[in-house]
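Chapter review. Work through the record for DUF721 domain-containing protein before attempting the end-of-chapter questions.
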Amino acid sequence: MRDSHPQALFDVLEESIAKTSNPLRTIQRNAMAINKLNQAVKALLPTEIKPMCRVANYRNSILVIEVANASWMTRLNYEKLNLLSALRGSILPSLSSIDIRINPVIMRKKPENSSLNNQTVKFNQIPNKRKISTETATHLLRLAENSSKGLRERLERLAALAGESTSATNRKS
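Structure tokens for DUF721 domain-containing protein:
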């Protein structure tokens, strides 16, 4: 019978020390096997697909691969038969099929690998280099002289961005 009830971590660790075939060692072996399988699968894939997919599991002769979104899933489906035959021939002769699933976490973890982020620059990384020229500030101050009180205050604050040469003391002359 399968032992499927929750166990305390302390009990699992004590049992793993006492036994030679402990559950932690089994989990570690499975994780290492999936990691090696992931490396082998990525070696067989085209370079643009590699960062957007990973091997999630191998069970019952079915390889489970996760991809970042539906478009990468479609792209990987085109490569599925080639991948299946290459894996059967070299690594997993008992492989019956490949199951592809979408996991959006892959895209969030590796944003630097997406083709969109390589082409565009994030807006919050660009410093604001815009400045108002003194000529523009002078025009704004002249416009403020004939404006209502609220608009005048806003235009004067905007003109103040040009620097000291257009401050309130200088414009009185």
